[in-house]
Input
Amino acid sequence: MEELILPKQGVPSPALAAQIQEWINALPSEGLWNWVSRVCKEEQMLPLHSTSIYIWALRPDGQVLCMDHEAFSHPIDREIDPLKIYAVLQQGTRTYPELSMLIPPSPPGIRQCESCAGLGWVKLPEAAYADTCIRCDGFGWY
Output
């Protein structure tokens, strides 16, 4: 079997790994509405980005994971798509700037989405809320 080679992603320093663990420990887990945080806490992963089906999260060892939160068993897999790893970590730095050292080099040809300016969402002119950017599928990059 051929070994999968992913772009070089930074490895958290012991101090950053401890900080990631603290953020995980602080996730709210009480109440039905916090079920995603509760699952992330149980699986020792920090949620960074989500779509209507998937949640991407980071473990203290620097591994990016993807959880299908619509499936009954909530399967969790290691993310292997370089674009998604890059985009998820970029999105994660909006909340946790300390994670910037973990962002791998951008995959060849990747561009920040012009439609949403890299946010992953757009404000709808006729509504008081924002919606996922269709151009980049909510990642901010394509």
